[in-house]
Every structure is written in C-alpha cells, then in structure tokens.
Amino acid sequence: MVRKDIQNAQQVLYDFFLYSVQTEPVDMVLATFRRLFVDYTESSTESDLPVALYSIVIANSERQFLFTLKRVCYILINNWGIQRRPDAIKTLIEMFDDSAIQRPGVALILKRLRSWMQDFICSQDFQDLRLFAARYDQTQHWSTRYTSYLLAPQYLNLDNPLEQREAARSLSAQLKSKFRFDLAMYTAKSQMKSPPSTIDNPTVLGETAINLIKMLLLQPGRFGYDNLASLLHKQCDQIDYWNFKRALLHYLVYALPHTAITYSLRDKLPDTVLDLYRHNDKETINEALMLRTCKRIVDALTTEDGEQPSQFFSMFLAQGNPLVLVILLLKVALFCPKVQAHLELRIASLIRYYEIYSEEDCRWVINFFEVFRITFAVHTSGTMYNLVQVGTNEPNSSSLSTYRIFSQLRQQHLNLEQVAETLERRFLSEEPVEIQPYTPDVEPLAPSMHDAIAS
Which domain of life is it from (predicted)? Predict the structure, then answer.
C-alpha cells in the first residue's frame, strides 16, 4: 500500500508540472517549483502538491524522492527546450544554489527534504542536470565543448527517467548537428579568396583544422574507409571466429601512416584482439559476437573500466599522435555502426577523467577530443566532404595548399556553401581538376579476405 501511495503522489506531481509547463507562464512554473522543493513548509499542506510531496518524504525513501525530483526537472527541461526557452532552464538549475536549501530544517519532514536536496546537489545526477545549462554560462569549462558526448551516459542508461533520456538525446543530437554545420561553414568561409575578417571556428585547433580535414580525405579518403569496412563484411560471411579476428586485425592496421606508434601498435594489438573470447574460436561468426568484439576493442583503445585511460590510449597520447588512434576508432565504428553508442560512452568517461585538470594542463588530450569529433563529423555525418585540386600547374603536387574542400548534404546533394551564400563566385567560375584520393605507399589491399587472413 505504501508503494502505491508513493506512485500516486509521484503521478500527481508529474501531471501537474507537465500541464503547467505547457499552459502557464515560465515565471509561474518556476515559482511553483521553488515553493515546493526549495521553500517547502508544513503549513502549506492544504493543496495537492505539498501533500503529494509530503507523502513521498514521509515514506522515508530518498531514492524515490530523488527519482521524482529528477523527473520533474526533466519534464520542465524537455518542454522548455521545445519552446526554445534556455533562460528558463538556466534559472531552474540556478535555483539549486539557493541558500535556503542549506539551512537546517526544524521539523522532521523539512529536515529530511533539505538533507536529500543537499545530497542531490552533491551527486552526479545534478552534474548531469547542469549540462543543460552549462553551455549558456559566460565562463565555460573546456569540457563543455564536448557536452554532446557527456550526455551519452544519460540517454543510454535505461534506469534514468524517460524524460531525462529524451532530453539528453535531443540536446546531444542538436549539439552534434550544430557542430557539423558550423564546421562545414567554417571550411567554406576560410577558403574564400577574401575571407571575412572574423570566421567562427567551431574547433580549438585554429587554422590546422582545415589541414586536418584535408589529411583525412587524402589518406585513404572517405570512400577508402567505407570500402574497407564493406570488404571485411563481405569476406567474413560464414567464417569462424578465429579467422574473423585475424581478418579484423588486418583491417585495423591496414593503411595506417608509417610512424613509430604504428609499429608499436602492430606488435601489441594482436595479443589483445586474438585473445578475445577464445572459447568461441571455432564458432561461426555472428552479429552479436561481432558487436561484443568491437566493444572490447573500443575499450582497449580508450578505457577498459570506464574510469582510467587504457594502456593503448596512454601510449598514443604520450607520443602526441591522436590521429592514428582516432582512425582506428573510426574503422571500428564504420565496420560496426552499432558500437558507436558504446564508443561515445567511453569518450564521455575519458572527458570525465581529465576534466579535473585545467585546459593548459591537458592540452594534449583536448587535441584528441578535437580530432575525434572532427573526424567523425567528416566520415559519419550527413555532410559529405569532397577534396579537389585547384589553381596549380602541377597536377601531381601533394601540397595541402593546392586542395580545396567542398561539402554537401549526402541525401539532398545540396551544397552547404551555396545555402550560406558565402562561397565567392571565383570558386564557381574556376574549373577545378578532380583528383583520385591519395593512397599512402603501402602494400595493396588483398583482393579477398582469405588472402588477408593468410598474410
């Protein structure tokens, strides 16, 4: 009976705030929230709302109270997000800084409620809540730039309220979409003959962001990575798990730049990959086993326990070469798209691990996060990037300055530069010479995965 009473009381609160946020002015909704959760007094028990909250608190279940508080907050955030009222979201979060919450209550109910409110403010749940207002702060922590990844643990955790998961998923998608669009606009504007005096660069890499995109398209090119993943899929049909791991290993190390870190990777990665799920070696490969394997590879390359960076991650970052690591993660994601959610969870864990450091103290790992989100914006988003060579009398020249980046939406085939009307007519009148994507000087890909396995 007690449990049913709590559920009924929770539903009263949910229904009221859902109706209120859709029909009442923002100030009135915020005032009601404040009176209920911040300034609660026993003398107000005549109305339904305080009575419902009283029923939850008197049952002495902090877990149920915190769940209720979270869900009410996300009901408001969801609806204000739809209404484009970021000011209301920010005010709601700031309400938890009210000094009244820190004052000890005299009555048992008030003492208990404020103690639980204080616990909530000190919890990870409140830090998750703050993500929805952090991007509006004047002075932002460096990790705020990667909020789209920090939201992943919220929308992938089935124990969170539905409203929280929907709010987190929606905001994450918005932030990723904005970054992709801003990146496409930046590449267009920065390559104009007379670029604007101020160009919004969505990255922190400065002008090197353009050269990074060119490098991503040159070696071995967008179609190259997609085709490698497709080839592995086709050739791994009906083979056993042991041979699949060998083929996957070949796929991962193929066409990587010839650097010292690459040679270290070739020495160390086989032990990690080939030791996975040895008891399944003779089984025919299936989708579930592919996904489990790709998850473990992502763990090995990022963080295996969701807290500390893995040995591979530390090895790559210690040598200051995030691009090779990012390409490996890209290859895994292109081969097994379902692993991307798990990958974003691991990226969020790494951001949380390093966010205690200042931006200056962890510049090297910030470079990794920047390269990661640029690479995935180029290769896995709805924007298609093309590289053409223009304005040179040397067709075989490999200088990055001789290439221009053009972007378009994959489905609509609509040029983003034209949408923004920022591309000068010079580019429209030129006759750029298209080139084949540059392939590094490596052995050619085996015509079949059986040959690759035997290599």
Answer: Bacteria
